[in-house]
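Team,

Forwarding the record for the chain on the shared tracking sheet. I've put the sequence and predicted structure together so nobody has to dig through attachments.
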Amino acid sequence: MTGFAATGLALCLAVGLESTVIYVRGTIMKKLAAEFIGTFWLVLGGCGSAVLAAGVPDVGIGFLGVSLAFGLTVLTMAYAVGGISGGHFNPAVSVGLATAGRFSWGQVGPYIVAQLAGGIVGALVLYLIASGKADFTTAAGFASNGYGEHSPGGYSMFAALITEVVLTALFILIILRVTGRSVPAGFAPIAIGLALTLIHLISIPVTNTSVNPARSTAVALFQGGWALQQLWLFWLAPIVGGVLGGVIHNALLSDD
């Protein structure tokens, strides 16, 4: 009987372990799918508003409309899939939350891959739509981020660097605070979406607003040329800003 009991226990443990592995894999894949879809929507909705709607004569939505579109993409997807993945949709957010201890460093890499994939597919769909117009060209920028002569307002590389670092850090601070234990649940996506809207209102003239390396990479791949040459800044500055936001939060504002 002891042998049968030991065999039965071993079998139960093996089945339980296999079920746990399957569950964990399924959970991770679900999170990555949520990040893919959320970033896809952010690029299609935010960059799509800039490429397709901002410059329409007389009725174009302009800077204000583009800013609101980016905020709405994050707000809507944070409610739709934020409960699954946390609603990052941005490598700088994943790094910032990991720096603050709110997210596992082990998942940062897979999250970034999913975000990049979602953003690129979003940019591809946008390109297919935009190229349906006879005079379409990516020479206008295709909503890419830039500095110097490629800044909408002609701002320098240094101005672009400071803008992206500071605004990303503040974005991370806002995310960390509105998702903290001392804040009423359910309202965080609204604050985060409005924060991203405000960030765009401030920085579209400077860099065309990144604060998100996945968003920058996705459209730069289709614009090519100068957008890819300047892409380094729109990885470096948001990631540095994300780390600073996490560090400042833990040093000064944490609930712990």
